Amino acid sequence: MRFVVLVFLIAAVFAEGPITDLDADTYRPFIESHTDVVVKYYTPWCHHCKRLEPIYETVAEKLTKKYPQVVFTQVDVNDNPRIGRLEKLHGVPVIRYFKNGKSLPYEGRMEKEFIQSFIENIITSSFEGVQDSITESKLSDLRAKLQKYTQTIVAYCDDNSRDYIGALELAMQEVVNLTRIVISDREVASKMNVPFPSLVLYHASGNGIVYHGALDKQEVLKWVLVADLPAIVPYTVSFTRRLFDKRHGINLQLFFFAPEKNPGSKAQRYRAILEPIAEKYRGTLFVSHIPSENPRLLDYYGVRATQVPTIGLANFVGERMDKYAFSGEFTEQNIVRFIERFLKGELKPFLRSEEEPKTNEGPVYTIVGSTFNKMVYDPSMDVVVKFYASWDGKSNDLAPEFLTAAKHFLKDSSILFGEVDIMKNEMEGINTKEFPKVILFKAGGNGRERVEFTGEMKADKLIAFVEANRGSKLGDSEELWNVCLTPVFRSH
Q1: What is the pLDDT of residue 474?
Q2: 198 forms bridges with which residues in the sheet?
Q3: Which tens digit of pLDDT belongs to each residue from 406-439?
Q4: What is the pTM for the complete model shown?
Q5: 79 CB contacts (<8 Å, ≥6 apart)?
Q6: Which domains does the chain have, with CATH numbers?
Q7: Active-site annotation, residues
Q8: Which residues belong to any copy of the Thioredoxin domain (predicted)?
């Protein structure tokens, strides 16, 4: 009886048009019973969803005629919120391709040609479908195929080297939206200037990248994830996910800070210098283009607008990012030397910092990255530091409470209150992942002993915290205040 009901439910969702409507009851059974399903998630009141509707219908009409095995569907998540929660949707419209039940999200522009290209790349991702369409004796057929698709992997092998196909097929279970072709003719490989047997990933531009590693699923997968990317990777949502994909194991990025729109001759010349370097170090690092039109990205990586175009290295180690600044003439030789010095461990990380303020008056003093050690690690006094982000609501709520606490200790010359914007400044050995936070650096020793405040962010609680944990004594501070009223400690 259950089987009959399931068949009825699946049959009941079919519509006369090219798009099938799914609901909470039919959604999972339908996807599990079809090998190729495209799903559009939408709500009726969404403006962008309404704009996408005719585009999606046009793509569905065209591709269902060309590829009858593909079924186009849609889900109204307003009427079916359970599906939205199941798929962890954070907004609409969203398009996903389900290949044998595996979800492949579309992350491109909601335009007909881009959506169609995404779907066709997945549809043609099979050895058989592509192999049969190639006449091995005609080199032009192969070249036409390579230009048609954004990326194509070609396995040049015969019956004596089928392990190449086996390793590739296992790896492609993780990455299915690539076109794959098998060529068993040695003559074709020779004319394409590649070894036989071999695996080669081609970009539509014609550049081919030969795989030189072991015929192991994980190693081939790592190669595909790296070779699939352009030489200089755009810093967009879809590409950054691939840059930070842990499966390829690459933690080093060379950032190219330059305008995305109207780059100018200088930025274009720099880009031309970087392209061969990107190919040279492919598999060791990524070269990423950071658009300089985004000031928050520039601030985050410690680059000033006046420095653009420029480059810098970033090494992502666990939750930490170590940055290395480039200096000197922008030449291929200097950039290669810069990279090699990092690989040999000869470079010191760069910590971003705001410019040191020309005037700095209390009761809450401004601390920047370049002045942090001098102002905070002072064994002669207790230093209370607020770590904050200017755009953060909780940081803004803390500001008046912290100021009140600072005023309470204004006549105590052995205590200094300071604040540092962690979005614009970095300090070695300070974890700024959580904010706002208040830390007391105690007087005595080397000035680095610290106690973090964990109570309610109120002035009276902060005052009690400082009194209980200070390293200096009240008598010492009164004596210092009487001897020298001049702001010795506070004029950093």
Answers
A1: 58
A2: 156
A3: 999 998 989 999 999 998 888 888 877 788 999 9
A4: 0.60
A5: 23
A6: 19-125 (3.40.30.10), 128-225 (3.40.30.10), 232-344 (3.40.30.10), 365-468 (3.40.30.10)
A7: 46, 49
A8: 8-124
